[in-house]
Amino acid sequence: MVRLTKHTREQYTQQIIHALNVNKIEEFRDTFLELHPTDQADVFSDFSKEQRKRVYTFLSPPEFAEVFQSLDVDFQKVTLLELDDNYASKMFNDMYADDVADFLHEIQSGKADKILKAMDKEEADEVKELLAYPPETAGAIMTKEFISIRATSTSSEVMEQLRQEGPEAETIYYLYVVDEKDHLVGVVSLRDLITAPLNEKIEQIMSSRIISVTETDDQEDVAKLIKKYDFLAAPVITKEGQLVGIVTVDDVIDVLEEEAEEDFGEITAARGSMDASISSFTAAKKRAPWIIMLMFLGLITAEVIGQFEETLEAVILLAVFIPLIMDSAGNTGTQALAVVVRGLALGNVERGSVGKMLKREFGTGIMLGLICMLTLLIIVPFLYSEGGLLLAGIVGVSLFLTLSIATMVGATIPLLINKLKIDPAVASGPFITTINDILGLLIYFSIATALLEYLPQ
What we know:
The chain contains 22 helices and 6 strands. The protein has a 3-stranded mixed beta sheet with strand order 1-2-3. A 3-stranded mixed beta sheet has the order 4-5-6. The chain folds into 3 domains: about 5-135, MgtE N-terminal domain-like (MgtE N-terminal fold), CATH 1.25.60; about 150-250, CBS-domain (Roll); about 280-455, SLC41 divalent cation transporters, integral membrane domain (Tetracycline Repressor, domain 2, Orthogonal Bundle), CATH 1.10.357.20. The mean pLDDT is about 85. The protein is mainly α.
């Protein structure tokens, strides 16, 4: 199987397109099917509509199923409209049940029902089972294509079973041992099976120390478990202990990407609007609640400045440093937020380590504040001779106090929100930035007002 590089992709694409255009079926098949399915999907995405229709006649439904599974969902929708109903049903029959379920989740329920009715009953029933689970659970992302074996079988019997069932399974690196009622009782790695004597009973080589997840576990918890134990797959069981599926590492990678995008959207107050395929109206509708809330918080910032109008009128030079105070407070708070949210997402923040984390962030804020204060004490007198060292001291001390508090605000808010069982990423960067802006301005103008009589006016 060939893996394309940047240099070879164009060469392969031209060769494949030429075979398509001149109707050389064998040349097309030899070249195209030599590629990895992911590269096949990349090349297929470059084809015109007419070229894609020719591909459907050159490849059988099982062969095209590999390509379809590797396409992004938007292109899958386009492709489905081009496929003959009979061809499409055969293709879905040859896809992994979890991949079919993922696709059906993304289309209208009427179209999904039509596809399920056209599929073989056994395949459709597996997909329906996955669709019945709540979204973002282990059951919703698991696959049904796994190999289960009996404890009473011998190694040679299981090897023969692998030859027959292996091509249909999503992974064969772990073999799951079940009893007569399909309860999970052990696991055997492919390595242990291969190295065991041929007449050895599975019960002699299996491990009964099983790490599994239940079908209702959150997908993020499943991803953390697989990452923690470096698994290639994890078994999914019911509350009664029956084996119903497995979650593979490729599904986990998708989950981690999805969760990271979701958290990034929360932190930037753009949740749900990061998909490049949605319209401007939809993106604006999703972002509007945050923007409106932040706008009202911004009015509080304006009110703070208005309360110190007399101070500003007396020493107009104080206005020059407002952006510096606000930007520094917001940036420092957002950095602390990112550190805490990452720790919570990865499960690194335990009950006993919260105090340690807050202490560290507070210490970091103090150190940053000291560095910025000393820098301003040196630079400001040279740039603004009117206020001299006193003006530099006001700005420097204000920034020192602001950064010390800003890190605590950025670290504390997501921890409090997490305590309320809400996604800590909801404590978005813009929200914490605005809060720190208000606190920073209050500190700055309070100190300036107290020392107003000593400033040149």
